């Protein structure tokens, strides 16, 4: 069992920290939303007043933050993880950020005497709450092996996909598929409703056939009912489609469907849905059709 400093207790980080406490780890948390620290304490973890206190005696430091500016500030900043954690600690960054930031953090870590893994996740809020996340890991084989007890507490599938940054590239591919699936499910709902067919029943059938997916399994009822509380915010998916677009440009490849999906997500943000769940792509498709 490990001493863990956990920074970023949001929609994903909060339930993940709870699983680590229940698995027997000593978890000290720091985050900007105080109620998440109350919850961590109630579950048997400890609260810290700043990053330094969260990581002071950590063997493992976990970050689950919105985007690369937060990760770079929390990890590399003057009052950050590398300035205050014991040398040799393993940093597992579960955040979704651009691959070059993961590389920069890993290189800075190596110079400062820390081991680093990029380990973005898929599975959404439900996956975090149930402890069944899919984890795509970039870094060295030995650090991947050392992190197994952590992955076991929060995930169901974890795979070492390559060197530093490779986890983020796989996550970008994941977000391409997830965004595209939501866009098509939204169009399917609208098509059925426009022709007077019960979309709930229709999606029940789709979920059992070749069109079935985890998205249909978890989200079809809330989409048909127009319930869009996050979940995974459109703002965050917009960030992720930017990572996809940058990666495609760097690789000199065209992703035409991805570009279209990225535009629909951008439209959702422009229409004021940034803090809704990404299933609110349905509202974007409805607006396009004047419905
Ligand atoms: P969130 O906004 O709910 O949580 C982020 C947390 O980081 C908040 O608790 C905030 O207080 C904390 N934070 C921000 N800046 C901080 C700082 N400087 N110091 C300390 N704490 C700070 O976001 P989330 O939905 O939990 O997503 C976190 C990451 O996981 C993102 O990169 C997201 O893309 C990714 N992700 C989210 C989901 C999902 O379904 N929500 C699924 C897979 C991956």
TrEMBL record:
Signal peptide segment: none
Keyword Oxidoreductase belongs to the record: yes
Family the UniProt entry places it in: Belongs to the HIBADH-related family.
GO BP: glyoxylate metabolic process; organic acid catabolic process
Domain 3-hydroxyisobutyrate dehydrogenase-like NAD-binding: 165-284
Identification of the protein by name: 2-hydroxy-3-oxopropionate reductase
Keywords: NAD, Oxidoreductase
GO MF terms, alphabetically ordered: 2-hydroxy-3-oxopropionate reductase activity; NAD binding; NADP binding
EC code: 1.1.1.60
Organism: Nocardia transvalensis
């Amino acid at each position: 069992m490990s001493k863990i400093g956990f920074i970023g207790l949001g929609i994903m980080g909060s339930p993940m920290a709870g699983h680590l406490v229940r698995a027997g780890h000593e978890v000290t948390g720091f985050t900007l939303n105080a109620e998440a620290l109350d919850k961590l304490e109630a579950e048997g973890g400890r609260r810290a007043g700043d990053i330094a206190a969260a990581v002071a005696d950590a063997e493992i430091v976990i970050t689950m933050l919105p985007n690369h500016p937060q990760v770079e500030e929390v990890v590399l900043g003057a009052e950050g993880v590398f300035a205050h954690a014991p040398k040799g600690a393993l940093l597992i960054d579960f955040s979704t950020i651009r691959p070059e930031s993961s590389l920069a953090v890993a290189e800075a870590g190596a110079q400062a005497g820390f081991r680093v893994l990029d380990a973005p996740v898929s599975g959404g809020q439900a996956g975090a709450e149930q402890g069944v996340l899919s984890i795509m890991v970039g870094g060295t084989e030995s650090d991947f092996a050392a992190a197994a007890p952590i992955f076991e507490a929060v995930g169901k599938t974890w795979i070492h996909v390559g060197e530093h940054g490779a986890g983020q590239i796989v996550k970008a591919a994941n977000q391409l598929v997830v965004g595209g699936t939501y866009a098509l499910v939204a169009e399917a709902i609208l098509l059925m409703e426009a022709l007077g067919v019960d979309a709930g029943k229709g999606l029940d059938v789709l979920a059992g056939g070749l069109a079935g997916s985890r998205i249909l399994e978890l989200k079809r009822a809330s989409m048909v009912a127009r319930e869009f509380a996050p979940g995974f915010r459109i703002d965050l998916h917009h960030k992720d489609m930017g990572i996809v677009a940058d990666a495609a440009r760097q690789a000199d490849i065209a992703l035409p469907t991805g570009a279209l999906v990225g535009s629909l997500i951008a439209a959702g943000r422009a229409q004021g849905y940034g803090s809704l769940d990404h299933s609110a792509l349905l509202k974007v498709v409805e607006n396009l059709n004047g419905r």
